[in-house]
Amino acid sequence: MRATVIYGAGDVRVTDVPDPKLVEPTDALVRVTHSCICGSDLWPYKSMPRVEEGQRIGHEFLGVVEEVGAEVRGVRPGDLVVAPFVFSDNTCEFCREGLHTSCVNGGFYGTDGVDGGQGEAVRVPQADGTLVPLPPTGDEELLASLLTLSDVFPTGHHAAVTAGVGPRTTVTVIGDGAVGLCAVLAARRLGAERIVLMGRHPARTDLGVEFGATDVVAERGAEGAARVRELTGRGTHAVLECVGTEEALATGLRVARPGGRVSRVGVPQYEQGSVGPAMFRRNVTLTGGIAPARAYIEELLPDVVEGRVRPGRVFDRTIGLDDVPGGYRAMADREALKVLVKP
Amino acid sequence: MRATVIYGAGDVRVTDVPDPKLVEPTDALVRVTHSCICGSDLWPYKSMPRVEEGQRIGHEFLGVVEEVGAEVRGVRPGDLVVAPFVFSDNTCEFCREGLHTSCVNGGFYGTDGVDGGQGEAVRVPQADGTLVPLPPTGDEELLASLLTLSDVFPTGHHAAVTAGVGPRTTVTVIGDGAVGLCAVLAARRLGAERIVLMGRHPARTDLGVEFGATDVVAERGAEGAARVRELTGRGTHAVLECVGTEEALATGLRVARPGGRVSRVGVPQYEQGSVGPAMFRRNVTLTGGIAPARAYIEELLPDVVEGRVRPGRVFDRTIGLDDVPGGYRAMADREALKVLVKP
Fold first, then answer.
1. Is A264 on the interface with B (CB under 8 A)?
2. Which residues does chain A have within 8 Å of residue B239's beta carbon, measured at their own beta carbons?
3. Average pLDDT in the A67-94 region?
4. Chain A residue at shortest CA distance from B266
5. CA-to-CA separations, B69 to A164, B48, B86, in angstroms, rounded
């Protein structure tokens, strides 16, 4: 089959790879109908050291089950399913706590012999724990929103949940990428009435306003933080940090109200952060982490299916599998917000 | 009157200072009967740059009200009272949320014309919001425990509360100083059954075991973290970081179970901490901060008065006011765990 392989910074190729086959009785084969490129795929695209043997990439997909292992009970061939971006057994002590990203039998697509999501098909380990059946549909707008359940929408939701967002919470969202916009949507869905979106790309922040942002702050760093404080008085209860840079973390810690919570869901591109006395004196909490998307899909699904939220609007470009390298370029150059791939 | 003044590292003196007088109608004058030296006083004692005009020091005290301003209603002359280590109005938006350390009318002893606690008397601003009346007693053992309500016991409690300690929580406490031992006591009081105390001073860890620690780990750093994981499998749900060094924070982040919470209550002696991808991947939360002692006193008081907890056992030396410089030396040299001062 054809699948996406990365060989180093700037070098993404769509090549022939072995067809996936069932290996474990708990596996399922999924024919991918919709996949996409993640902001986190851009980090290796920007900085991965060159490798001889490329690495499979992509971790967001939905598709149709083709074949299941002998022990799989929850999905069957022909089912439309979405795959959260980490596979998990949904039964271990961490899964039972809703922390599927720490599943003792879980893992990541594109590593250890598991296919990446940007390809024609994927062998999904722990299929019963991982795959969530969806109502059959041919509605491409709905399918785009369903695809966001694999990562970007639950990731925004995870930021909002771990930051304690609710009806009486004021919120700052840092970053107008797809995760930031989904975090706005998630915060609004959880009842937040005041949502300040920090971003400086008008086309993106405009969508953020449609998703529920009440204020947009284009300034960054200390200046941006000052502007948020000016707007909100003492900062906001919740800060959803959806970028992953040290500067974004520092901004988040600055705009949190005393006693507030900064939740980060962008993969940290730093080892050290400014968590010193200023944060301590104000009792600001740093929370979040890699989102256990699997834990949230059932909760978010009805609102997506019934059209109360339309997270699929973050996709502003659709391409075929062979155009994936161009999709990476477009996202890296900020010509596209988020690229949907139809293999 | 006589009071303690610090002039720089290693230079603490007890000198004559002006007698305190009521300034605001919300003030009270408190004759200090019991004060003490805090682990956080040792940071300036170790590193404060030399100053010409010394600075008053000390922030933990209990005593008898001598005089109150015209607007004070909650305490009257003759009352035995304990003062939390930050004064606060107990009515502002932060106080109502239990975050008295961010009170908009609050502040610290020893600065801005407010007396320090290591002296004969203190003018207490925001007396109604700050001072908590105590049942009269002459029992010195009980008075020592009541004194801990000003800081060290609520600080340990704050660590436990913000880390979410409860009956099903496993806990690591980092640090066998007075705060660490009080954190053990607080965690046990909140129902934790497994409490690993990281400390290497047997006299202190022995008291920690009496307070409720089930395991003691003497190793530090990576070795200590490995030992805690060995004992607990995957680390503990809650980590109470009661030291304040970057190493202690790093250890805390290592011994937290995925999804766990590290709460720090020792004043950070660092600007940058290791909050990078390893913490993110495991969804570990960093919380805590300066403890709003005032928020907890009513809750903790009955257990202290009725002897169910005896946090005053952290005091292993009692001195007079003139001996305060020697008290600092003894604590800095780890000859004393915590020094009680009777002016």
1. yes
2. none
3. 98
4. A280
5. 41, 35, 19
Helix (H, G, I), strand (E, B) or coil at B341: strand
Residues of B in contact with A258 (CB under 8 A): 94, 99, 102
The mean pLDDT of A37-57, rounded to a whole number, is 95
User: Per DSSP, what are the bridge partners of residue B32?
Assistant: B63
Residues of B within 8 A of A268 (CB-CB) are 275-277, 280
pLDDT score, position A111:
92
CA distance between the termini of chain B = 11
Half-sphere exposure in the Cβ direction for B317 (13 Å, CA)? 19
Cα B77 to Cα B25, B63, B206, B298, distances in angstroms:
15, 11, 41, 21
Categorize the per-residue pLDDT at A66 as very low, low, confident or very high, splitting at 50, 70 and 90: very high
- Write out pLDDT tens, residues B180-229: 999 999 999 999 989 999 999 999 999 999 999 999 999 999 999 999 99
Confidence of residue A230 (pLDDT cuts 50, 70, 90): very high
Our CA dihedral for B288, B291, B293, B297, rounded to 10 degrees, sits at: 20
Record: contact B273-A276, CB cut-off 8 A? yes
Domains, in order of start, for chain B: 2-151+292-342 (3.90.180.10), 154-288 (3.40.50.720)
Among all residues of chain B, which has the CA nearest to that of A261?
B287
pLDDT bracket for residue A331 (50, 70, 90): very high
pLDDT confidence band for B160 (50 / 70 / 90)? very high
CB contact under 8 A, A290 and B280: yes
Q: Is B31 on the interface with A (CB under 8 A)?
A: no
Q: Which of A272, A280, A290 sits opposite B264 (nearest CB)?
A: A280
B29: number of CA atoms within 13 Å, CB side?
12
Cβ separation of A273 and B275 shorter than 8 Å?
yes
Residues of A in contact with B268 (CB under 8 A): 275-277, 280
Task: Report percent pLDDT > 70 for chain B.
Answer: 100
Mean pLDDT of chain B: 97
- Using CA coordinates, name the residue in chain B closest to A265: B280
Q: What confidence category does residue B33 fall into, taking pLDDT thresholds of 50, 70 and 90?
A: very high
- Tell me which of A286, A287, A294 to substitute to probe the interface with B (most B C-beta atoms closer than 10 Å): A286
